[in-house]
Design a protein that fits this description.
Helix content is 30%, strand content 16%. The protein has nine helices and seven strands. A seven-stranded mixed β-sheet has the order 1-5-2-4-3-6-7, covered by helices on one side. The longest helix has 11 residues. The C terminus is likely disordered.
Length: 203
Amino acid sequence: YGLFASIKRPDAIKKVYKLKKRSEEMPLTMIVPRENFSKYAEIPEKVEKLLMNELMGPISIILPKKGERVPDYVTSGLNTVSLADGENAFMKRIMEKIEICGTSANISGMPPPSTLSGAVKQLGPELTLAVDGGPSLYRIGHTVIDLSKKPPKLIRPGPYNTRKLLQLFPELIGEEDGLPDELVKGHSIIDISPEVDIRASSK
């Protein structure tokens, strides 16, 4: 589940940070149709092609931002922006009407909820609107990859298949503290965490 606000409403974005108890130094993710990613970010030709047929599903992609389109209070003043596509019909309808950004609907440091009741239990009664979409497909946060510089960097492994990322970006590196050996060898987090209840994943 996610916690979202219009990028045109800095007051609403401040509320997102407050509800989540998240530092405003940590940027949010823009949730926009992938065909519109180029409106908000500078996209290398190779990445643009991959967006339409490979980099789809539960993955957030960090790219150099177009400053005139993305407010600094969304990206915490960074010159990059994290982008993700809405994954269901409801989110796609929202994206048609409103430019939104967001983050997972949990208190910072706590596990992301997979049900509306779990999100409300963590975030409390101050939510403006809560929509029940049923149990989420994923019990862990999106995979996050930084393609804003070379070599590309895997910021956070998640439900998107890491083996596939290594095939697309053989030069891919992990965080400075290193990745699990299994991930370095090309396994996805699903392969090494069978206790995670995930009903669908990217191929």
